[in-house]
Amino acid sequence: LPKNIESYYQETGRAGRDGLAAEALLLFGYGDIALSRGLIEKGGNPEQKRIEIHKLNAMVGFAEATTCRRRVLLGYFDERLDENCGNCDICLNPPETYDATEEARKALSCVFRVGQRFGVGHVIDVLRGAKTQRLRDLRHDQLSTYGIGKEQSQDQWSHLIRQLVHLGYLQQDIANYSVLRLTEEARPLLRGECHLTLARPRVKPAAAGKKVRKQIVGLDYDEELFALLRARRKKIADRDEVPPFVVFGDASLAEMAATLPTNRAALLDINGVGEHKLEKYGAEFIEEIELYLCR
Q1: 128: three-class secondary structure by DSSP
Q2: Is residue 193's pLDDT more than 90?
Q3: Segment among 213-217, 248-252, 282-286 with least mean pLDDT
Q4: Of 42, 91, 116, 268, which is least surrounded by CB within 10 A?
Q5: CATH of the domain at 258
Q6: d(Cα 109, Cα 123) in Å, to the nearest integer?
Q7: Do residues 180 and 170 touch, judged by C-beta distance below 8 A?
Q8: Residue 78 is part of which domain span?
Q9: CATH number, domain at 71?
Q10: Are 223 and 259 found together in one domain?
Q11: Which of 199, 228, 253 is the last residue of a domain?
């Protein structure tokens, strides 16, 4: 994970310097974030640390974006894109979002009630009403926020709090046992003056029989066929020396795997399939679907 958006922008810029389409893949884990924060905290100048933490949070916010990544990227540099790019993974496969205002207020309130002196695990224990000796010793089982989030799992609360940190509503003091503290941005949310929309974490569904079905862009599709269509797309892309998404995006392949078009008219009804792509690639994808159905 790059330490800031400026570095990411420079790295991805190398892929498109010739003006042609290019693919950029960002891989990161939350361990990367913790490591970067720790290195920043070891620095000397408090003002410089504040700036670097802010930039790291912006980078993580970009990685966890729920809207068009190009708009988020340009917005960081005070540039405006009036329409979504239609090419990033968010545009091609939008995540499911939900109103997280109530859950966020519960989490922020709990951080406040425990005196802003404890880390994520302790806050989640209070929210979920854990029956531990530590909570009893601290009398945190008497707090108004004790048990108010018992309907949410530990993983759900962990994901929510992580996003609150990345979005700047909470500050995690790495140098002081990672205790959580409220920021100024949290106050309007706590007072009910604004709402918060977050992306639901993507969950890989369990396999069920030979033909596994998944959800993508609201579609229930055959995962095995989807994989075959992606493999066919890769062969075509290699043959034509173009990036795979130039052939068809994942959303189009998912819709094919859901609706099983076996003629030109049906394939033309798929989002992302126009007359040009129908003529150029249609027959090969129809063939792949027919072969799969004949198994």
Answers
A1: coil
A2: yes
A3: 213-217
A4: 42
A5: 1.10.150.80
A6: 10
A7: yes
A8: 5-93
A9: 1.10.10.10
A10: yes
A11: 199
